[in-house]
Write a structure and sequence with these properties.
The complex is a heterodimer of chains A (111) and B (113). Chain A has 111 residues and is an all-beta fold. In chain A, 0% of the residues lie in helices and 49% in strands. Chain B is mostly beta strands and 113 residues long. Classes of the chains: A mainly beta (111), B mainly beta (113).
Chain lengths: 111, 113
């Protein structure tokens, strides 16, 4: 099974400041079709997870451009350029190249 | 509007079986696999398995193999997840997920004697 490891476990960020979350997979997420199957989700308190980024760096419809994803192979990063109050919640990375596995989550709160 | 609407909360006794439904609307049911994800209170997301609504083929996570059954009814555009031999550790919110961007609202299952 592919293991997804996220760091840090939690982040406390001042509004307007940047934030970065790392996700590492135990195997490469690069498929033979050329795509890399790494996703990022935000689960706001009391809600279902919502898709932010698909295939490493593609923002999903309606996602603000302050969110960006990068990386390749086994190392990936989600960046928020300027954190806003509405960005609080738990962020998860997920791989889908081999069934599905999620990272453990990173809780983001506002200072 | 594309949405997945799940059945309501359940309270079950240890050893019982629960069956949760996930009704699809707004897209063609057979176009995407339907996944089920477990989230225990205060914990992360754990993939349980999937069904291909086109042909009913399933794949289950090893952790749930033997206790979970996922099905799809194309006549009603509804997917089901059945979990048997319930124990307290199965107390969780269960989500259906399609195409990775469409999530149900979640169904809380409480297992308690």
């Amino acid at each position: 099974d592919i293991v997804m490891t996220q760091t840090p476990l939690s982040l406390s960020v001042t509004p307007g400041q940047p934030a970065s979350i790392s996700c590492k997979s135990s195997q490469s997420l690069l498929h033979s079709d050329g795509k890399t199957y790494l996703y990022w989700y935000l689960q706001k308190p009391g809600q279902s997870p919502q898709l932010l980024i698909y295939e490493v760096s593609n923002r999903f419809s309606g996602v603000p451009d302050r969110f960006s994803g990068s990386g390749s192979g086994t190392d990936f990063t989600l960046k928020i350029s300027r954190v806003e109050a509405e960005d609080v919640g738990v962020y998860y990375c997920m791989q889908s190249i081999q069934l599905l596995t999620f990272g453990g989550g990173t809780k983001v709160e506002i200072k | 509007e594309v949405q997945l609407v799940q059945s309501g909360a359940e309270v079950k006794k240890p050893g019982a079986t629960v069956k949760i439904s996930c009704k699809v609307s707004g897209y063609t049911f057979t176009d995407y696999y339907m996944h089920w994800v477990q989230q225990a209170p205060g914990k992360g997301l754990e993939w349980m398995g999937l069904v291909d609504p086109e042909d009913g083929e399933t794949i289950y996570a090893e952790k749930f193999q033997g206790r979970v059954t996922i099905t799809a009814d194309t006549s009603t555009d509804t997917a089901y997840m059945e979990l048997s031999s319930l124990r307290s550790e199965d107390t969780a919110v269960y989500y259906c997920v399609s195409a990775f961007d469409i999530w149900g609202q979640g169904t809380m299952v409480t297992v308690s004697s």
